[in-house]
Design brief:
The chain is built from 20 helices and twelve strands. The chain is α/β, with parallel strands linked by helices. It has three domains: 127 residues, Fumarate Reductase Iron-sulfur Protein, Chain B, domain 2 (Orthogonal Bundle); 160 residues, FAD/NAD(P)-binding domain (3-Layer(bba) Sandwich), CATH 3.50.50.60; 114 residues, Alpha-Beta Plaits (2-Layer Sandwich), CATH 3.30.70.20.
């Protein structure tokens, strides 16, 4: 553990990009932008929909808080993340064959979801993928919940219906015009009857949540009381999420709640422990100075942010790709295979134990094939060995001494010349993502990540 913490003390890099850390849904924003820049829109949409079931809706109503954290915004203007998300979502909805996620085989379980707002719709989207049948109950005659009246100016109804219907097409029993109450008053259905009829019930009733205490569900001043880890209420098999639990101002927060509730319900139905939601180990760069931001932007496209109107037109593909290419790729693309991250989490390491003043961002060496980021390097020597074995490479060298030791090309030699044909091999073998394939094909990157 001490050895790993000493390595962490000299490690400067982001595990996740600031935009992704800020997004309530934790969408993999950098990967979406890379895929759009490559013109791989279907993969970009699949990336978005892993975390956001309603991207066309959120592309119109989200306040773009992720863009407030975009590091490019410290240099000129942030990447138009929300509008690019809207672009890939609209493009899919208008296509001949809109995206359909893979559904697991029927689990034999049946879930009742009360409420068709962003939380309820999102929960159904993920529950259906897990193989669970879903029946949606809503007192209204149509889907949407808070989306219909809180965002009527920004959100056209045809977009709302299109995304809701895409979820319903996964196979959902719809019971609109059905009111569910705690005790089952006249012309209503009771929560007790749903508990008997279904394997699980999700309360996603929004801001105007009913009082469910008569059905054995404990209430608080803000809404339904739930277990933070499982989202289960005081009644076995009854879950709650979104504004039924506490007021959430942002629709994206409700979407995040819906996914979390679906995951918890799925675990309960399968009789497995819910995911450990304690904060996982992660490193983050300190806020960059003005000069460090300039260094960070070196090698990126110097283009200005694309006008919003150009991203919402029918012929917005070129504008979307151009805007996506402005991304600085702050994330660690090697995170899934990062051994330092793996062992730091396994041994519950404290990255601040030996931190001292902390290592600052040092810039990047950008070559045609790969990029070398010194702050992430742990001086393992693998790249030095691999480049030495390449017949067409001059090889990398270890320069300086003590805390200033770095891996670098020899004086007067470019990074591409130093690595030669070993460049891609070094990128795949690097245990911390200090060496990465330069901006280009995401497919090429993925191919070299197979270890």
């Amino acid at each position: 553990r001490t050895g790993i913490e000493l390595l962490l003390a000299d490690h400067a890099g982001d595990c996740h990009a600031p935009c992704q850390n800020t997004c309530p849904a934790k969408m993999d924003i950098p990967n979406m932008l890379r895929l759009v820049a490559d013109g791989n829109y279907s993969a970009a949409l699949a990336t978005v929909k892993r975390d956001i079931a309603l991207p066309a809706i959120l592309g119109r109503v989200c306040p773009e808080i992720c863009e407030q954290a975009c590091r490019r915004g410290q240099h000129d203007s942030p990447a138009a993340i929300c509008q690019i998300k809207r672009f890939v979502a609209d493009r899919d909805l208008n296509s001949e064959h809109p995206y359909q996620p893979v559904l697991l085989p029927d689990s034999g379980k049946h879930v009742a979801v009360i409420g068709s707002g962003p939380t309820g719709l999102t929960a159904i989207y993920h529950l259906r993928q897990a193989g669970h049948r879903c029946t949606l109950f809503d007192a209204a005659d149509e889907a949407g919940g808070r989306l219909k009246y809180e965002f009527s100016a920004e959100l056209p109804l045809d977009v709302l219906w299109a995304e809701a219907n895409a979820i319903f097409s996964l196979g959902v029993d719809l019971r609109f015009g059905t009111t569910i109450t705690s005790a089952g008053a006249r012309d209503t259905k009771s929560l007790n009857s749903l508990v008997t009829e279904f394997d699980a019930v999700l309360l996603a009733t929004g801001n105007e949540a009913a009082d469910w205490s008569a059905a054995g569900v404990t209430m608080t001043k803000s809404g339904v009381r739930v277990d933070a880890a499982t989202r289960m209420t005081s009644r076995d098999g009854v879950f709650a999420a979104g504004n039924a639990v506490r007021p959430y101002k942002l629709a994206v927060q409700s979407v995040a709640e819906g996914k979390l509730a679906a995951e918890c319900i799925d675990c309960w139905l399968r009789n497995v422990a819910p995911p450990d939601r304690r904060k996982t180990y992660e490193t983050r760069l300190a806020r960059l100075t003005k000069q460090e931001v300039c260094d960070f932007c070196e090698g990126s496209l110097p283009t200005a942010r694309v006008e919003r109107s150009l991203l919402t037109r029918d012929d917005s593909e070129a504008a979307a790709r151009s805007e996506a290419e402005r991304c600085l790729e702050c994330d660690c693309r090697a995170l899934a295979n990062c051994l330092l991250h793996h062992y730091a989490a396994q041994y519950d390491c404290d990255a601040q134990h030996y931190r001292g003043e902390g290592r600052r961002f040092e810039g990047r060496l950008v070559g045609d094939t790969v990029t070398l980021e010194h702050g992430k390097c742990i001086l393992c020597g693998i790249c030095v060995q691999l480049s030495a074995e390449a017949a067409d490479a001059s090889g990398l060298a270890v320069v300086n001494r003590g805390m200033a030791t770095r891996v670098s090309p020899p004086p007067g030699v470019s990074l591409d010349e130093a690595l030669g044909s070993a460049a891609a091999h070094c990128a795949a073998a690097c245990p911390t993502g200090a060496i990465l394939l330069s901006r280009g094909s995401s497919a090429s990157w993925a191919a070299h990540q197979q270890k």
